[in-house]
Amino acid sequence: MIEVNHLTKRYRGGTAVDDLSFRVEPGRVTGFLGPNGAGKSTTIRMILGLDRPTAGSALVGGRRYAELKRPLTVVGALAEASDVHPGRRVRDHLLWLARSNGLGRQRVAAVLDETGLAGAAGKAARTLSLGMRQRLGIAAALLGDPGVLILDEPVNGLDPEGVIWIRNLAKRLAGEGRTVLVSSHLMSEMALTASHLVVIGRGRLLADLPTDEFVSAHSGANLEEAFMRLTSDSVEYRAGGSR
Ligand SMILES: Nc1ncnc2c1ncn2[C@@H]1O[C@H](COP(=O)(O)OP(=O)(O)OP(=O)(O)O)[C@@H](O)[C@H]1O
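Above: the input record for the complex with adenosine-5'-triphosphate. Below: its predicted structure, written as tokens.
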């Protein structure tokens, strides 16, 4: 479970996240949506302890990230596909992560299998395709067998096979009872992946409800239309859209 309580982040230039509260429940995939600049990344960064809230809190498994003794065993995150040293081999990267987080080697073998990377374990990161790098990021997120997974724009740039793989993986992880939060700009993909949605605009909560209810509540023919109707006032580049 992820609990975001009155979370606020102000910068000199304005407010990125504005008194935001929602819960991400286990056992289902929750889509995290919002137009560019809505505050999704800032929210995720605060959940992961990478940014300090101005006010409010973000809890993972009932605790602030900074209080977690072994964070990788509680929450796994895919943020940047490329935060691996280019010369490092796939297995060595995961072994290093495992060692520095007090996890056994057997977890490395398990996540290599789970992500279909066993055959590429000896390859240097720089030789991997984007799809393979994405799998490596997911392998790292799964290393501690966490109950909470946060995937920020996981399908960007992936080919259809990669997109389907991520979709099925997210659903399988949720089916195992984990909490899965996925952010994406691709509405058609979200409609296929997420059964629940949290939608924000200008740092504020706009909707928190099941995907099918979201579409019918905003009288859209599909998720994209419903999203456009709901967020049309929150788009950053609109005239008069100063923050
Ligand atoms: N370090 C920072 N300093 C000042 N402003 C910031 C900083 N980080 C983010 N912002 C501002 O906060 C707002 C929210 O940004 P954020 O990246 O969280 O949005 P987002 O929903 O993830 O957008 P996108 O979909 O484009 O990735 C934006 O207006 C952004 O310019």
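Notes for the reader.
The chain has eight helices and nine strands.
The pocket of adenosine-5'-triphosphate is lined by residues 11, 13, 16, 34, 36-42, 243 (CB under 6 Å).
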